[in-house]
UniProtKB/TrEMBL annotation:
CDD domains linked to this entry: RHOD
Superkingdom classification of source: Bacteria
SMART domains registered for this protein in UniProt: RHOD (SM00450)
InterPro entries from the UniProt entry: GlpE_sulfurtransferase, Rhodanese-like_dom, Rhodanese-like_dom_sf
Start and end residues of each Rhodanese domain: 14-93
UniProt name for this protein: Rhodanese-like protein
Cited SUPFAM superfamilies: Rhodanese/Cell cycle control phosphatase (SSF52821)
Lineage, uppermost ranks: Bacteria, Bacillati, Bacillota, Bacilli, Lactobacillales
Length: 93
């Protein structure tokens, strides 16, 4: 699985535009999220992943990096190009 540290991700985020997939639950996302991030909770991923574009590269983030790692594994198995953001939103605080 491809991964990036939160610090490296955040430096890219400040300079470039790319697809961010936030797999935290809706309440967590509404409390704090990165501008431009798309919320698709891990609990709904198996039913909703087909709405994602296979031509996009997705940076996948959660609270600490655990749910995003599981989401990345699942999405990669479905043929999506994904990068797990290590440390997740906890690294922002």
């Amino acid at each position: 699985m491809r991964e990036i540290t939160f610090n490296d991700f955040y430096q890219l985020y400040q300079k470039e535009s790319f697809s961010i997939l936030d797999v935290r639950e809706v309440e967590e996302f509404e409390t704090l999220h990165l501008e431009g991030a798309r919320n698709l909770p891990l609990s709904q991923l198996a039913d909703a992943y087909k709405q994602l574009d296979k031509d996009n590269l997705y940076y996948v983030i959660c609270k600490s990096g655990m749910r995003s790692a599981r989401a990345c594994q699942f999405l990669a198995e479905q043929g999506y190009e994904v990068i797990n953001v290590q440390g997740g939103m906890d690294a922002l605080e």
